[in-house]
């Protein structure tokens, strides 16, 4: 194939003549390239923020815990080791060095914890338990201010620092310090000597050296031993109990090791993550490091045993990011498709304007390759410069850019005009001659129809295939990270298939309209119908309008569905309009009753919510969320709120055989002879119905009535208060809790703002809005280009009608109707297609991973999606008005001469 000959003067002349259209095509390329190129760097940064937020919100679940080997106890007797604190620091350093580099780069220095089981205090009756805790960080113990007394000291002087204790010796004394809240809850004073014993009856003496208040109560170190600051209170077997923790200092740590057997001491080093250091691109390697560390033999070989849920937390975060990337890809595929269709439409208009020069060039001997070569040079220059401008802007604003989608846009923009120009050149030279034989002409026409049917069938088959792929595997790729392009293109192929069907139905409908218009009074309707048979079923304009409106409607539905799903998830997570969380205590019942009478509060109820409670059923054991609540009061609260009703709450108290009745939501395998592990005892229960979704729990939910649990011999002091009503949050914040230690008050609006401001949902929402607006702008541009393409033929036809004496008012209506009717039809079909597509597709996009719901959110299609059609109609009406003014400006004598 020979090299095309280019005529530079012709290129310059064509550029000057059509610079407006070329600049318009370049603008489309630049905008599309800029948006698609900006998605990659912004998506990576958003993914980093999302991973950091996921790890940060996980709290203690994302910590890495190193459990040290158990200390050795000589059965002949023990010796007090004054170097215990030094050994503990060395163990922490050893654990830190054992971390893989991927984990060490994202973890904070370890915090050492040495804890005992709950020791029963024997000085003032049952129900009083104290855990002994030693906390140590690389910077030293957590900062406290002493209110009475002082820090714990060694129980012996320096001369007896290495004292030996025989096997039959009495209990050893360990000095501890307690917080003010623990001292008040247990009634302790400085100097108290407390006899205590563990579950095996082994005794130890505890001496209170002082009371303290934390310098920074929000310091994360206190979260490793929460009962140091907030003791737990409740009832067990009808007996009230209080469980708290006391601090063991570095000086008294050797006494703790001497006073209690080694199997009572749990020595751990807890490494908390630094969320800002967790990156999306390194999260997979980090997760593998966690798995590899946990798979070591650990304590079985006398070494460190590692445990962490960080791998699961990272998997959850990666799943959310992968879903968001897939959803973004759905929007980008639609946007790029619309941009490509508009670029082809612009190239078609450009070639139509140059039909005369192309035909003249062919008559003068120019080859088809010469015509296509000149158009290719022009198109490549425009596309490359526009794409470079778009990429440059993105690099300046974000520092980097993704170029994958830009290649497709540049290729389409550079190839559309040369291909259409080559076809026009072939036709100008008479390359397609009609055969003289009638049978041959019929065969040729049949071949054309078969080719069109093949193209239409191919579009429908690909649309069906992509939809099946979307339904089967969603928008997340096989590797769980990158989006699946086949599934992500399902909505776009859906829109193309609808447009193909519309193009097949339009011609017969328009022909019937012509026949019906013949019997109408006046000629305007007949002229409009006749013109529409020629212009109303053009493929590209119908494709652009139908596809763009469909995708605009889908984008609006996606944004509205996400926002509504976030509202429902926030309501479920809060449990009402506001929620108060506090340490479990019976005083919350009275606070809830007072709250019910507060202005603006429709209902309030106190409950005990416990996560991680074990339920066993025929060999199956799972952790569930247990909710102990007054069933009647909770049902009234649900009825007076927007929360889903739970009619099965009325069934509590009706279980046969005197077993504990309960409602279960989740794993149905737990319904066979279930047993609840509550406060160290096994409680059989009977599932009598389905529980409501309390707090949007990931685990199964078990709801029991408080009185039913009390009849079974167990208590559950409430630790949560739910309230509904416009004044619920203010009333909860203002309620007089007395001595109740309140952890937090969560309002519905605050929770909803937190969810909507999260990195992934907010980024996807912005992308959906921007992509929908840009697609709508492309649809309007496509309508303008389609009107400009048919403008010469329409001007000639209307000029003849005007010369024949048809009134100007009728002619203006003809122009408006000819331009508006195809847009209205294609736009309304696009709206209907978008609504159907939203209901068919959104359930497979894993939106629940971003909204925080347990299942796919209910689809919401805003009513204002029809505004897209109104915008397009207004655009073509303006174009029709301008075109009519230009037509009226031509003198009538000129029309008669033409």
Automatic annotation (TrEMBL):
Localization: Cell membrane
Coiled-coil regions, chain positions: none
Keywords of this entry: Cell membrane, Membrane, Transmembrane, Transmembrane helix
Species this protein is from: Nocardioides renjunii
Residues covered by the ABC3 transporter permease C-terminal domain: 770-882
Name the UniProt record assigns to this protein: FtsX-like permease family protein
Principal cellular location given in the protein's record: membrane
InterPro entries on file: ABC3_permease_C (IPR003838), Macrolide_Exporter_MacB (IPR050250)
Membrane topology: Multi-pass membrane protein
Annotated transmembrane regions: 330-351, 372-397, 403-429, 450-470, 490-510, 539-560, 764-793, 814-841, 861-882
């Amino acid at each position: 194939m020979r090299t095309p000959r280019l005529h530079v003067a012709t290129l310059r002349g064509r550029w000057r003549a059509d610079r407006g259209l070329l600049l318009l095509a370049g603008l489309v390329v630049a905008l599309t390239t800029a948006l698609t190129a900006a998605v990659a760097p912004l998506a990576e940064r958003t993914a980093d923020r999302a991973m950091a937020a996921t790890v940060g919100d996980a709290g203690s679940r994302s910590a890495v815990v190193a459990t040290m080997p158990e200390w050795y106890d000589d059965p002949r007797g023990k010796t007090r080791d004054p170097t215990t604190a030094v050994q503990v620091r060395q163990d922490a350093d050893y654990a830190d060095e054992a971390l893989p580099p991927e984990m060490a780069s994202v973890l904070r220095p370890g915090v050492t914890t040495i804890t005992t089981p709950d020791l029963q205090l024997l000085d003032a009756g049952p129900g009083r338990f104290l855990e002994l805790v030693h906390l140590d960080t690389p910077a030293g113990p957590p900062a406290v201010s002493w209110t009475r007394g002082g820090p714990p000291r060694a129980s012996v002087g320096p001369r007896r620092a290495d004292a030996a204790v025989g096997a039959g010796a009495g209990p050893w004394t360990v000095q501890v310090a307690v917080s003010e809240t623990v001292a008040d809850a247990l009634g302790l004073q400085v100097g108290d000597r407390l006899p205590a014993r563990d579950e095996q009856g082994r005794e130890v003496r505890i001496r209170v050296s002082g009371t303290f208040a934390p310098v920074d109560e929000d310091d994360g170190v206190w979260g490793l031993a929460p009962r140091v600051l907030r003791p737990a209170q409740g009832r067990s077997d009808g007996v009230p109990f209080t469980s708290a923790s006391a601090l063991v200092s570095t000086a008294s740590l050797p006494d703790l090791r001497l006073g209690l057997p080694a199997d009572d001491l749990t020595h751990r080093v807890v490494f908390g993550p630094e969320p800002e250091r967790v990156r999306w691109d390194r999260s997979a390697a980090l997760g593998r490091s966690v798995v590899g560390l946990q798979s070591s033999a650990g304590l079985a070989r006398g070494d460190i045993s590692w445990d962490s849920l960080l791998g699961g937390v990272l998997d959850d975060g990666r799943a959310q990011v992968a879903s968001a990337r897939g959803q973004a890809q759905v929007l980008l595929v639609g946007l790029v498709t619309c941009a490509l269709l508009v670029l082809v439409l612009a190239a078609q208009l450009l070639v139509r304007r140059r039909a005369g020069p192309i035909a003249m060039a062919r008559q003068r001997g120019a080859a088809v390759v010469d015509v296509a070569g000149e158009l290719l040079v022009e198109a490549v220059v425009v596309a490359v410069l526009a794409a470079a401008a778009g990429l440059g802007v993105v690099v300046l604003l974000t520092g980097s850019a993704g170029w994958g989608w830009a290649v497709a846009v540049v290729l389409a923009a550079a190839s559309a005009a040369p291909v259409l120009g080559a076809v026009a050149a072939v036709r100008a030279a008479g390359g397609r001659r009609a055969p003289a034989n009638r049978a041959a002409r019929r065969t040729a026409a049949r071949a054309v129809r078969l080719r069109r049917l093949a193209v239409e069938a191919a579009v429908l088959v690909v649309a069906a295939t992509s939809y099946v792929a979307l339904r089967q595997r969603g928008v997340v790729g096989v590797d769980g990270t990158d989006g699946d392009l086949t599934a992500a293109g399902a909505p776009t192929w859906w829109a193309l298939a609808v447009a193909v069907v519309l193009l097949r139905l339009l011609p017969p409908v328009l022909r019937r309209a012509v026949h019906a218009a013949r019997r109408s009074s006046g000629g305007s309707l007949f002229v409009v119908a006749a013109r529409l048979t020629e212009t109303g079923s053009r493929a590209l304009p119908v494709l652009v309008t139908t596809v763009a409106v469909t995708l605009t409607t889908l984008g609006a539905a996606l944004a509205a569905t996400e926002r509504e799903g976030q509202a429902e998830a926030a309501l479920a997570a809060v449990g009402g309009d506001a929620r108060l969380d506090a340490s479990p205590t019976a005083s919350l019942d009275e606070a809830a009753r007072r709250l019910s009478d507060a202005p603006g509060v429709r209902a309030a109820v106190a409950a005990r919510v416990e996560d991680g409670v074990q339920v066993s059923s025929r060999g199956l054991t799972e952790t569930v969320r247990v909710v102990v609540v007054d069933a009647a009061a909770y049902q009234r609260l649900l009825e007076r709120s927007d929360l889903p009703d739970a009619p099965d709450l009325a069934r509590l108290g009706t279980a046969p055989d005197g077993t504990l009745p309960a409602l279960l939501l989740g794993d149905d395998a737990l319904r066979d002879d279930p047993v609840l592990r509550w406060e160290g005892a096994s409680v059989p229960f009977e599932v009598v119905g389905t529980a409501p979704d309390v707090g949007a729990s990931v685990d199964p939910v078990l709801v029991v009535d408080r009185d039913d649990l009390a009849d079974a011999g167990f208590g559950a002091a409430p630790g949560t208060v739910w309230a509904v009503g416009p004044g619920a949050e203010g009333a909860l914040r203002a309620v007089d809790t007395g001595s109740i230690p309140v952890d937090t008050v969560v309002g519905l609006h605050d929770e909803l703002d937190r969810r909507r401001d999260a990195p992934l949902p907010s980024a996807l929402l912005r992308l959906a809005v921007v992509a929908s607006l840009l697609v709508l702008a492309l649809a309007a541009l496509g309508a303008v280009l389609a009107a400009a393409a048919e403008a010469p033929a329409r001007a000639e036809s209307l000029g003849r009608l005007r010369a024949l004496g048809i009134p100007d008012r009728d002619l203006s209506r003809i122009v408006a109707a000819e331009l508006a009717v195809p847009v209205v039809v294609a736009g309304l079909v696009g709206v209907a297609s978008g609504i159907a597509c939203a209901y068919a597709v959104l359930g497979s996009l894993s939106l629940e991973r971003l909204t925080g719901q347990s299942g796919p959110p209910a689809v919401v299609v805003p009513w204002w999606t029809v505004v897209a059609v109104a915008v397009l109609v207004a655009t073509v009406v303006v174009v029709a008005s301008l075109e009519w003014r230009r037509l009226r400006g031509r003198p009538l004598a000129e029309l008669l001469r033409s």
